[in-house]
Each structure stands twice: as structure tokens, then as C-alpha cells.
Amino acid sequence: PLTVTGRQVSVEGPRIRAVGEISAGGRPVVTAEGLFIHKQLPRPS
After folding, report:
1. Which of 20, 26, 40, 45 has its C-alpha lying 20 to 30 A from 6's C-alpha?
2. Which domain of life is it from (predicted)?
């Protein structure tokens, strides 16, 4: 079976760093790192 994991590594202001992994039989097959930017949009009046 495949196991998918992911976690948030850090939050620095609007920057959110995350990592993830897909494993098969306990061995990593794919790893990933991501940087997400959280932007607050103004609400319409």
C-alpha cells in the first residue's frame, strides 16, 4: 500500500513552508517541498 504524509514546517508572516512524502512498503518513493503565500484579500464593501 501507498502511504501519503504531509506536514507544515514553518510559518513566517505570510510564508508557509510544507513537506510531503509518498512511501511504498515503508520506503520513500516521492518527496516534495512547498512554499505557500497566504494573501489576505480586501473584502468587497
Report:
1. 40
2. Bacteria
